[in-house]
Amino acid sequence: MEVLKIATAGSVDDGKSTLIGRILYDTNSLTDDKLEAIEKNSRSKGYDYLDFSLATDGLVAEREQGITIDVAHIYFSTNKRSYIIADTPGHIEYTRNMVTGASTSQASIILVDARNGVIEQTKRHFFINNLLRVKEIIVAVNKMDLVNFEEGRFNEIKDQIQQLVDSASYKNQNITFVPISALKGDNVVKKSENTTWYTGETLLEHLEKIENKDVYEEAQARFPVQTVIRPKTDEYHDFRGYAGKIYGGDLSVGDEVVILPSETKSKIKEIHFFNEQFQSAKRGSSVTITLEDNVNVSRGDMIVKANEIPNVSKSLNATICWMDNNPLKPLSKYYLQHGVNNVATKIESIDSILATDFSGETTEVSELNLNDIGKVQLKVNKPLFYDSYDENKGNGAFILIDSQTNTTAGVGFING
């Protein structure tokens, strides 16, 4: 069954956890013991309603403070597809968590409190989703019950968001607006009788209709080799296959390909998936490929179509979201993980820090601190075969690893 990965974003008390809990409840995805726990906790707090935020706020600190701290992944299914929802924090100090949740998502739900409208955090959430090139954005205007389901207020918020859209650098996003009440259930899974002026789909109806072609850019195929398969059995004595995951585009039997970095040419002979063979494989497929020629291919090499060669360089210009408590400084050294390749890198310069409020302002800085997003120049110790993040998300992203602690210190997006 097709899986759609969704990130949520919203300021504190905008109702992210309540919305997710409501979706789980209305799709009958809550287990009996979880529902019983929600009912019990709601009664103990004196609520005359079910507090669905308890369905996702799993940490004790989250339940006590009524905020989301960690990134929680929630799984549920309908008759049409399966979903993975990344419930991310809304605080500015958890920007790195928001980036983590949105980086692997194909759609994003940004919640806006109908009473408050677009605030600083809303701009930051939209900026991050724009930076990560998330194509499908659903703006859920929540707590419409607290503004008497006024159409005028809903339209005001739409206009505020449209100003952000007009200022964004990435223009190829699909923006959908839905007026909801997560607490009451209006327009989440079931159509609301309180918004007769709204003729659009419910939130879940819209999610059900999103197709893969709506959330992916057209990109060139990239096949980083994870491992070389040599069974050395009587049946497969001469078998030599290359296993990995396809990024960007599709690959087919007969495609003329180039192996990088050797630049050796060959053609795809077979595409294997377990014990089956296919004529073609789509992006996102994990397969084993054989070639017509007995060429030298190793882990870390990249197989690409002969007419779709990526960029090659030892110098990179990138946008980095810094995730470490220790600041990023010029001349500091890290390991750069790009696909299956791990290379040493040095920070040549830190050019600027980006404003996340769509003001267009940049500030010259000497270092990046935790949760900062900035422009950086890097140099790696061997050539990388890469695309800009705009052209190929899979081959245009990397992480920086602290060589001393082995922790992920930052995530980067290569600029064109």
Compact overview of the structure:
By secondary structure, the chain is an alpha+beta fold. It has helices at residues 16-26, 32-44, 60-65, 95-103, 120-131, 151-167, 203-209, 212-215; strands spanning 3-9, 72-77, 82-87, 107-113, 136-142, 174-179, 222-229, 241-245, 251-252, 256-260, 264-273, 276-278, 280-281, 286-291, 302-305, 311-322, 333-338, 341-354, 362-363, 373-386, 397-401, 408-414. It has three domains: 3-215, Rossmann fold (3-Layer(aba) Sandwich); 222-305, Elongation Factor Tu (Ef-tu), domain 3; 311-414, Translation factors (Elongation Factor Tu (Ef-tu), domain 3).
Description:
By secondary structure, the chain is an alpha+beta fold. It folds into three domains: 3-215, P-loop containing nucleotide triphosphate hydrolases (Rossmann fold, 3-Layer(aba) Sandwich), CATH 3.40.50; 222-305, Beta Barrel (Elongation Factor Tu (Ef-tu), domain 3); 311-414, Beta Barrel (Elongation Factor Tu (Ef-tu), domain 3), CATH 2.40.30.10. It has eight helices and 22 strands. It has helices at 16-26, 32-44, 60-65, 95-103, 120-131, 151-167, 203-209, 212-215; strands at 3-9, 72-77, 82-87, 107-113, 136-142, 174-179, 222-229, 241-245, 251-252, 256-260, 264-273, 276-278, 280-281, 286-291, 302-305, 311-322, 333-338, 341-354, 362-363, 373-386, 397-401, 408-414. The chain has a six-stranded mixed beta sheet with strand order 2-3-1-4-5-6, with helices on both faces. Strands 7-8-14-11-10-15 form a six-stranded antiparallel β-barrel. Strands 16-20-18-17-21-22 form a six-stranded antiparallel barrel. It is globular. It starts with a strand and ends with a strand.
